[in-house]
Amino acid sequence: MPAVTLKAHYDGERIVLDEPFEIPPNSDLMVTVLPPTETVADEDWFRIGRKALSAAYGTDEPDYGIEDLRQ
User: pTM to 2 decimals?
Assistant: First the structure.
């Protein structure tokens, strides 16, 4: 049987598949627990991106112009 990724959730007592799927008895399974889903506003993404971009390019980085591009 090929590997398959299935969506599921934990109901406080057991792992429950979100959609029906036939799993043969004694099948090997791998379970990955994901962090809680959080909604991040566009402004938060902008702030996170700006911080990462400023960390990637220091103040000593030269300013490249259009003439510096290769054709």
Answer: 0.47
Is 17 within 8 Å of 6 (Cβ atoms)?
yes
Query: Which tens digits make up the pLDDT trace of 36-67?
Result: 776 667 778 888 888 888 777 777 777 788 88
Cα separation, 6 vs 18, whole angstroms: 8
Distance CA 27, CA 4 (A): 12
Q: What is the DSSP string of 10-41?
A: E-SSSEEESS-----TT------PPPPP----
Record the tokens describing residue 51, joined without a space: 């911080």
Query: Looking up tokens 């490249």, which residue turns up?
Result: 64
